[in-house]
Amino acid sequence: MGSIWFFEDSQLFKVLCPHKLKRYKKDHSFDAYKKSDYIYFEEDSANKVYLIEKGKVKIGYYSEDGQEVVKAILTRGELFGEKAILGEDRRSEFAQSVDNSTSICPIGVKTMHELMRDNQTFSLKIYKFIGMRFKRLERRLQLLLFKDTKTRLMEFMNELKDDFGYCCPYSGDTIIQHPYTQRDIANLIGTSRPTLNILMNELKESNRIDFHRKEIRLKNVA
């Protein structure tokens, strides 16, 4: 997994969450959300950033014709609402809980700036994280605008391979153990679940992949 995308892997969770710091602990608590609850809406005041302690969160916006566009689905250890760090006053997207037991660590922008000011290494990692996320979102939006659904799926599986994949030493296949449901994947590549099922089964029949509930095996066909 990429340490920039998963704070628990680079131990930033311990640094970032105010609940773990004596200076902030007494004034801090986790927020709980059920499935479909909104953490914030478009145009809400951007005065906090959020760290996912448990569950999944969908980030997106609504197009001019009212269609929902999903930009990302984030899981445990990931940060969102990060544009507030850069001075965003109002949200340009919504954040919505995907699970029935999502737990969020809210961090005030002032607290975040204090943490970044007091720890240069942490500050550099945060800015690198923001830059990489913007780059990835820009790439995904380009795919949605200019590529067909099958290409978007293959590109998404390449992202999953980078984040969650490992090589099986016996077969040479790449095993991807990921946190997404089929609905999540369909939302992220801008298609329907039936279309996604058709494409996944086509790839399976051509012996390019195999898949189960939250595992995809990219076959070594060389």
Report on this structure.
- Keywords: DNA-binding, Transcription, Transcription regulation.
- Residues 12-92 form the Cyclic nucleotide-binding domain.
- This is Crp/Fnr family transcriptional regulator.
- InterPro entries: cNMP-bd_dom, cNMP-bd_dom_sf, Env_Response_Regulators, HTH_CRP, RmlC-like_jellyroll, WH-like_DNA-bd_sf, WH_DNA-bd_sf.
- Residues 147-222 form the HTH crp-type domain.
- By secondary structure, the chain is α+β, with helices and mostly antiparallel strands.
- Helix content is 39%, strand content 24%.
- The protein contains 8 helices and 12 strands.
- Strands 1-8-3-6 form a 4-stranded antiparallel sheet. Strands 2-7-4-5 form a 4-stranded antiparallel sheet. It has a 4-stranded antiparallel sheet with strand order 9-10-12-11.
- A hairpin with a 6-residue loop joins β9 and β10 (174-177).
- α4 crosses α5 (120-146) and α7 (182-189) crosses α8 (193-205).
- The longest helix is centred in the middle third of the chain and has 27 residues, at 120-146.
- The model is unreliable at 1-12 (pLDDT under 50).
